[in-house]
Amino acid sequence: MNTVNANGRSARTSKGMAAALKKPAIAKPGNNKWNQERRLEFIDYRLCWSGHINRSDLVEFFGISIPQSSLDLAKYTEMAPHNLEYDRHQKVYVKTAKYRPLYSICSATSYLNDLYMNAQGIIHDTSNYLLQTPNVACFVPPKRSVDFEILSTIVYCILNKCSLRITYQSMSRIDPASRVISPHALGFDGIRWHVRAYCHEKHDFRDFVLSRILSVGKIDVSNIDPNEDMRWNFVVSLHIIPNPNLSESQRKAIELDYGMENGEVVYKCRQALLFYTLRTLRLSPDDNEADNNQIVLKNKNEIFVLLNM
User: Fold this and answer.
1) pTM confidence score
2) Is 234 helix (H, G, I), strand (E, B) or coil?
């Protein structure tokens, strides 16, 4: 039986009108279920960098049915009708001249990262959307062996604020030595991974190269506060400019290379990683070496003082 509200309409009728007036969800990135969102990203990526997509691409990569792949392509077409058109001769969807990427995964940075990881052989099959790729040559740093058990133990100690005993091969000793550390962070210098930790032997915060940790031992509760690691928590600003000794055209080229605005770019890094950052950028306190660099530090006096602090 229908109830009647103050306006004389039945409650069932009011609910029906409300449902009819409710607007459908707008089809756009982020409004879809997670699994379908991934497939829509995939469609966008393949269109962007391969120029075409078809149902079999989705079926083979995600293991879905043909009808589901058709629904996904229809959903993408609803979201971006000007991004693709169906080529009846090739029987594929092709990218149009009006194509504009929907997802950030299609950015230039993301694509180049994918090429780099693919060249290194470290991109996982489940996240490798690449199809055809250009020839790629890149510097692949030496693979440093980091033991899984050692890394997982260190991560556990970081997350649970514990100390642990390690056996470490330092540069200053012939034989490995045992010491207790309280790790609180991981750092990457472009080639090697480090663990940032308080050394209970030296009574100071230091970097330990992960590949030089030979074994881990007893775990204990740590009372070390990571906020006391001033070199880790202090962020340094590197003001980088083209070398003034370069010609005007050379300086313009460097400005483009480094994404400079008004002839300058600011890089930020933790003071604890300053040495490694400067080494990667080939920036040296030695003025004679700096003369040959493409870039120099505008605030070098301030920065190089921090190396010894």
Assistant:
1) 0.74
2) coil
Question: Taking the CB of residue 157, how many other CB atoms lie within 10 A of it?
Answer: 22
Residues 186-197 have pLDDT tens digits of 999 888 999 999
Within 138-225, residue ranges assigned H as helices are: 148-160
Sign for the CA dihedral angle at 129, 35, 105, 148 comes to negative
Phi, psi of 49, deg, nearest 5: -105, -15
- CB contact burial 93-116 (16+ within 10 A = b; e otherwise): bbbeeebebbbebbeeebbeebbe
CA distances from 12 to 7, 15, 17, 194 (A): 13, 5, 9, 66
Read off the pLDDT of residues 179-234 as tens digits, 9 standing for 90 and up: 999 999 999 988 899 999 999 999 999 999 999 999 999 999 999 999 999 999 99
Q: Is 115 left (phi over 0), alpha (psi -120 to 50) or beta?
A: alpha
Please name the residue that has the structure tokens 């030296």: 202
Tokens of 5: 């509200």
